[in-house]
């Protein structure tokens, strides 16, 4: 029976010699690794944008434009911090998965060796006198010694493997500690940058107070249009028509100058017809993953006119490109929305925000802060339209 126990321990050890099979969650691990790579890329891009905005602000003489670019730089740093947090969370998830797999492998190897050592200890406690009393005991002793000579090298090899697994576990623990520290640092940086942006927005509102009357009139008109419109598409059509009318009035020629010599021809009016606009330089308004593309049919049966991004709760939302705020308010079931007029019949609609940092009439540049995503359902939808028709954003995004 004791010999059977030894053979059982060896069989268990033999199972430990096989290659550990990967769990079905290996694909999920690859997804987490891809998420880590994407988050690190997003953080790098946001960092480069913040440096560019700061450089442009230093070189700008116009105070208003300089303020907008400094605010865009802070917003880019916020998105950098958000991407850094996403990278730290992905790194923690990867390390946790690797630690779980490592613990499983360690348990398998330990179980095999423990069974074998227990069997050997049982045989070691057998008194040698019994070999003279019980028939066949001498033959058992010979078998055990032969068995030990075969098994001991394997035991030594497996214990060395156990030491390697333990060392690997310590390395994973150190990596997990570094990832947790990076997560804490990212959250602290995010909070600091959000406070800085809030302070800049407050200063901007104070400076803009002298323009309150004209801005209030324009905001009231936009709100009235929103209340009268049957849906968000009609609201955008109304705002686009108003923008075209404003551009047409701005392009009208001034009064003709009287000719210097009576009877001679007067100066010909300048042709200021609206040129066909080119596609704007565009970027996504938030750091996140695209969950719905242009033209996809939702569960409700409606066809998407833009793209929807899933982002972090309270994520920073920025302007995809430069323009003028045509609408900024809560609109029915869309949450806080912003409509940006880019000129030439091109507009952008952004929905799904919880708070806004802009108002009607504000001029924004690419990267200027617009507001924050919701905390409960952080889904941001962005639609680009030209003359009322949806435009595919994907080819425009660098």
Automatic annotation (TrEMBL):
Which residues constitute the signal peptide according to the record? 1-25
* Single GO molecular function: metal ion binding
* Sequence segments annotated as region (Disordered): 254-281
Q: Where is the composition biased (Low complexity)?
A: 254-263
Protein's organism: Sphingomonas cavernae
Q: What is this protein called?
A: Metalloendopeptidase
Q: Which cofactor does it need?
A: Zn(2+)
Q: Which domain of life is it from?
A: Bacteria
Q: Which InterPro entries match?
A: Cell_wall_metabolism_enzyme, Dup_hybrid_motif, M23ase_b-sheet_dom
- Keyword annotations: Hydrolase, Metal-binding, Metalloprotease, Protease, Signal, Zinc
Q: Which residues cross the membrane?
A: none
- What's a Pfam family this protein contains? Peptidase_M23
């Amino acid at each position: 029976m004791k010999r059977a126990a030894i053979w059982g321990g060896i069989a268990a050890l033999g199972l430990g010699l096989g290659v550990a099979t990967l769990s079905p969650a290996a694909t999920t691990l690859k997804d987490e690794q891809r998420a880590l790579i994407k988050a690190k890329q997003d953080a790098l891009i946001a960092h480069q944008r913040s440096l560019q905005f700061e450089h442009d602000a230093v070189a700008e003489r116009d105070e208003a434009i300089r303020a907008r670019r400094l605010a865009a730089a802070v917003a880019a740093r916020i998105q950098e911090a958000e991407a850094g947090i996403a990278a730290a969370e992905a790194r923690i998830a990867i390390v946790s998965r690797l630690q779980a797999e490592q613990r499983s492998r360690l348990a398998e190897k330990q179980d095999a060796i423990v069974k074998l050592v227990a069997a050997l200890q049982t045989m070691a406690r057998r008194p040698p006198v019994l070999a003279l009393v019980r028939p066949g005991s001498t033959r058992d002793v010979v078998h055990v010694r032969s068995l030990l000579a075969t098994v001991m090298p394997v035991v030594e090899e497996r214990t060395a493997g156990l030491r390697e697994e333990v060392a690997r576990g310590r390395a994973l623990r150190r990596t997990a500690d570094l990832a947790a520290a990076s997560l804490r640092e990212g959250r602290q940086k995010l909070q600091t940058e959000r406070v800085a942006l809030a302070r800049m927005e407050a200063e901007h509102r104070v400076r803009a107070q002298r323009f309150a009357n004209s801005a209030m009139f324009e905001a009231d008109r936009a709100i009235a249009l929103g209340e009268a419109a049957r849906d968000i598409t009609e609201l955008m059509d109304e705002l686009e028509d108003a923008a075209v009318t404003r551009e047409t009035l701005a392009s009208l020629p001034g009064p003709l100058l009287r000719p210097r010599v009576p009877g001679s021809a007067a100066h010909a009016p300048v042709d200021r017809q609206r040129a066909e606009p080119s596609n704007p330089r565009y970027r996504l308004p938030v750091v996140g993953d695209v969950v719905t593309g242009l033209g996809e049919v939702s569960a409700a049966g409606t066809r998407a006119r833009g793209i929807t991004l899933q982002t972090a709760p309270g994520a920073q939302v920025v302007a995809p490109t430069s323009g003028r705020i045509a609408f900024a308010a809560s609109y029915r079931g869309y949450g806080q929305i912003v409509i940006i007029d880019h000129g030439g019949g091109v507009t952008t609609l952004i929905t799904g925000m919880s708070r806004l940092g802009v108002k009607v009439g504000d001029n924004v540049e690419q990267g200027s802060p617009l507001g924050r995503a919701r905390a409960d359902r952080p889904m941001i939808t962005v639609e680009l339209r030209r003359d009322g028709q949806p435009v595919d954003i994907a080819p425009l995004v660098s």
